[in-house]
Amino acid sequence: MNVAPFYDGWRIAQERLVERIGDLSPQELALRAAPNLWPIWAITAHTAAVRPYWLCHICEEPGAERTPFASFVDEGWEDDLDHPRDAAELVPALQSTWTIVEDCLYRWTPDMLQDEFPRAINGRVQMHTRQSVLMRLITHDAYHCGEIAQALGMHGLKEVDIWTGRVPTLPTPA
Questions:
Q1: What is the C-alpha to C-alpha distance for residues 53 and 56, in angstroms, rounded to an integer?
Q2: Rounded CA gap, 40 and 135, in Å?
Q3: In angstroms, rounded to a whole number, what is the distance separating the alpha carbons of residues 8 and 1?
Q4: Do 109 and 11 form a contact (C-beta atoms < 8 A)?
Q5: How far apart are CA 42 and CA 144, in angstroms?
């Protein structure tokens, strides 16, 4: 048995993010919640790039080569704010990195979730489990979807509603 059924809501959030980013113009993708914060395009790029970082670079899963981030470890698109990305780049980035997530969810079993992987950072080694990486990625996606929703809302635009499609809606009883 794989772990995919336990994380199905994440797929729906991914679909809503892709839909919303795909609808945004370059001007809308350039919006920020504050002057010192990333524009929406950079938040989106960062969200996508972190997936192969953790799953491929740290957990040693295949698939980074199928994404625009195959050679990125320390820097991503968001590190070059002078090169804004548009929906035509961001949507495939989100979709291609999601395939790595999906591959892992369908291949990993509950018994594999406690397997550990080292991450060297700041002269120390951290030990991460597959479970901790999944939780990191889920919360990371949600955090940045919230940032995007806030930036859109501050500019009078429809937010990213990651819950749409998750909960069945019934007619109100008379």
A1: 6
A2: 23
A3: 14
A4: no
A5: 10
DSSP 26: H
CB neighbours (10 Å) of residue 15? 16
Query: What is the structure's pLDDT at 165?
Result: 65
CA 169 to chain centre: 26
pLDDT digits (tens, 9 = 90+) for 68-122: 998 877 788 998 999 999 999 999 999 999 999 999 999 999 999 999 999 999 9
pLDDT at 168: 66
Question: What pLDDT, in 10s, does the model give residues 160-173?
Answer: 888 776 666 778 88
Q: Under 8 Å CB-to-CB from 76, ≥6 apart: which residues?
A: 45, 46, 49, 69
Q: Which residue has the tokens 């972190």?
A: 50
Phi, psi of 124 (to 5 degrees): -130, 165
